[in-house]
Amino acid sequence: MSATAWAWLVLLFPLLGSITIALGFRVLPARAAGLIGTVAIGAAFACGLGVLVSLLGEAPDARHHASSLWDYASAAGLDIKLGIYVDPLSTFMVLIVSGVSTLIHLYSFGYMQSDQGYRRFFSYLNFFVFSMLLLVLAGNFVLLIVGWAFVGFASYALISFWYRRTTATRAGMKAFVINVVGDIGLTLAAFLIFRELGTFEYEDAFAKAGQVFHTNEWTITAICLLLLVGAFAKSAQLPFHTWLPDAMEGPTPVSSLIHAATMVTAGVYLIARTHPFFVLAPTAADVAAFVGLATLLVAGTIALVMTDLKRAIAYSTMSQIGYMVVGVSIGAYSAGMFHLMTHAFFKALLFMAAGSIIAAMANEQNMDRMSGFGKAMRFTSITMLCGALALAAFPGTSGFFSKDEILAYASARGGMYLIFTVLGYVGALLTAVYTFRLVFRVLPGKPCPEAQELIDTGHVHHAHPFNPATGEEEDTDVGFPGADHHIAEQSAPMRVAMGVLAFLALFAGLVQVPGVDETITHFLDPVFADSPLTQIVPSVGASWFGLAIGAVISLAGIGIAYLAYVARPELPGKLEARLRPLHTFLYNKWYFDEAIDFLIVRPALAIGRFANSVFERFVVDGVVTGTQGTVRGGTAFVRAVQNGFVRSYALLLLVGFAGLALYFLIQSS
Amino acid sequence: MNISWYIVLSSLLFATGAVGILIRRSPMVILLCLELMLNAGNLALVAFSRMVGNQEGQVFALVVMVVAACEVVVGLGLIVAIFRRKLPLDVDDLRTLRG
Question: Which of A347, A373, A375 has its CA nearest to residue A360?
């Protein structure tokens, strides 16, 4: 079978799974729904491997295929096909998305088992995977926007999955609104692309762009900046990032799949996919890179002080996506994509481990109350440690190779780009500190009551579910895992998923070791060969020097965390007291929510209130009632004629005809 | 015979019908008066037809009779409907359709 045929099958299975579960939710037993969902995604992954195999069987330069099923819209000069584009980049993304999704479906199979909304969950989750695969396989900008909007909806539906929880529904709305801002940017970019290039198809658009645009012409810069609005909103980069921490209201597998491993990296994929545009607009690419850098530092500092376990990991996700955005924007395409892959592994794993712990805490997410889970949950703590080591770029793990590759490229490019190397290493230090802050606060120490209960009885702590944010009682009827859940690492599918990811988090970096085997670079090379930036290659010596610095920084970060949270546990409190304003500033997330509220939400509300109280009441109502009055007044005479007396009508008729007859008589004589 | 006599008779009949419609209030009588006006027209048509010497005017008279028959059907139907609903048979009282 050809690569494109495999790719169509990749799209088919998740769609079928979603539809089957959605239509059959009354008849399917819950377990069957989970099984169908998991098998559908597994089949998609298998077909993704089929794509890979058939691509590898071709010459590197011939590894790009467009295929379309039918015309989506065909009108004057506009020809949009329902088409996909298969090349190493989209194949790479398909494999990551479907592979990680398979494992997370497996995890959910166990994790969600006591949830009343089990079938709904799997239907949504399959729909999400379908949308995400559509996004990465789309062959033109229109289908890209379709996939882009679909994942936005799936994200909304899954954040608000426990829809009786007010905080969850609010978080869903926030995510949706901010994502729509990004959708608007992306759509406007597509309009501009069509106006300037006359096509929506990737291949044609990229081929024409070089002839139509001059470097840094305002149109191509505008296109790139609008694309960036879309990418930043989806990937939670400054200033569109505020939805991501709130999105942690969703079930943990959702955080793991959508808000860590796959959907939030769509912006990185978009920048990599449209790199021919960014090569023509270096200014826009620099804007992207600096926003990525700012995000990675801001999010890293916030992650240092968050006390909510999942939100801390969410800020870490933002920070890591910052690295990827820096990578694909400055030209380290394959390094950025490599970091995307390793991040998908270790961040999905960290969320799974966090989910396991949160389940053991009966849905309590506050880290201040957690300790001693190292003894209580051996498997979870080992896998969490694997994920944390990879995130902190411990030498030899996957994150170690991927992060340093981006920074090595930045220093090889030189000049202004050295800033990215230097601040990137500062970010790496922050990463190591906040990662091991989580680990040292949750795993070692004296077991907290919940952990002690697990050790003593082997049962998960059960509490009556209350929403910690608002104190509201949770409604377990709509699917909030109630008091009778028995999860937390005790289910075999969860253990398998976490085990596989732990292995990948530790060892996936070995496919791309500088100077030894650069598998991913070689595989993705044909896609990025047209970019002059790929001519810059850091020497093997420089790469290893960078790796050495990275190793030192990572160990130093872990050491600092050990010092602060294990050796001298009173230190953080002292620091917090000493640096009270800084802590407050970080704890309030740099006041981004408040700033957006002040700059956008309140003015918009004020304009709305003005429009309602003044414009609507006086102008609109005035025009309407004025028109009505004029018409009513002007027609009073006409209405008087219609008095309802048949005989007066007859008289009018008679007089009228007599008048007409008189007129013609006078005329004719 | 001079055509003027026919026209005078026709005009008198038409005027009678018109005055009847204007002054009477019973729908029944109004219908009768309408018939009178139509037949005044018919008389004029037939008279002119004879004067000119072809049959076209008579054909028109026939058409008018058909129209008159139809009109009477509708009109009488209305009167029956009004009667059945026990409404006053007085056109001045039936004036709900005023503007």
Answer: A373
As a whole number of angstroms, the distance between CA B82 and CA B88 comes to 8
Is A34 in contact with A107 (CB distance < 8 Å)? no
The owner of tokens 């889970």 is A373
Helix (H, G, I), strand (E, B) or coil at A70: strand
- Report residue A2 as tokens: 């050809």
**Which two structure tokens, joined as six digits, stand for B74?**
């509708």
The predicted-structure confidence for A202-213, as pLDDT tens digits, reads as follows: 888 888 888 888
Helix axes A540-562, A398-413, angle to 10 degrees: 130
Residue A594, helix vs strand vs coil? helix
A661 in B contact zone (CB under 8 Å): no
User: B53 CB near a chain A CB, below 8 Å?
Assistant: no
Return the SS3 of A140: strand
Contact B91 A654 (CB under 8 A): no
Q: Hey, are the CB atoms on B98 and A642 less than 8 Å from each other?
A: yes
The SS3 call for residue A459 is coil
Q: Which residue has the tokens 């890209």?
A: A144
The answer to whether A142 and A82 have CB atoms below 8 angstroms apart is no
- Nearest CA among A560, A543, A567, A553 for reference residue A394: A553
B88 CB within 8 Å of a chain A CB? no
Contact A638 B22 (CB under 8 A): no
Closest of B39, B37, B83 to residue B61, by C-alpha: B39
DSSP helix/strand/coil, A85? strand
Residue ranges in A75-217 assigned as alpha helix (H): 88-111, 118-137, 141-159, 166-197, 202-212
- Rounded to 5°, the CA angle A52-A524-A550 comes to 120
Name chain A contacts of B91, Cβ cutoff 8 Å.
645-647
CB distance B91–A639 less than 8 Å? no
Per-residue confidence of chain B (99 residues) as pLDDT tens digits? 788 999 999 999 999 999 999 898 888 999 999 999 999 999 999 999 989 888 888 999 999 999 999 999 999 999 999 889 988 888 888 877 776
Chain A hits for B95, CB-CB cut-off 8 Å, are 643-646
CB atoms within 10 A of CB A606: 10
* Closest residue to A647, CB basis, from B22, B96, B99: B22
Q: What is the dihedral of CA A63, A69, A70, A71, to 10 degrees?
A: -40
Q: Where are the domains of chain A?
A: 281-462+492-587, 636-669
Which residue, among A133, A157, A156, A159, has the nearest Cα to A146 in the 3D structure? A133
Closest by CA position to A519, among listed A527, A511, A530, A531: A511
Interface test mutation site (partner B, options A645, A646, A653, A657, max chain B beta carbons within 10 A): A646
Determine the residue of chain A that is closest to B14 in CA distance. Answer: A654
Report the alpha-carbon distance of residue A218 to residue A215 in Å, rounded. Answer: 9
What distance in Å separates the CA atoms of residue A314 and residue A579, rounded to the nearest whole number? 24
Q: Mean pLDDT across the stretch A646-660?
A: 89
What is each CA distance from A45 to A251, A252, A343, in whole angstroms? 23, 22, 19
Nearest to A326 by CA among A216, A419, A209: A419
B92/A654 Cβ within 8 A: no
Fold of the B3-84 domain: Helix Hairpins (1.10.287)
What ipTM does the predicted assembly reach?
0.85
Average pLDDT over residues A365-378: 80
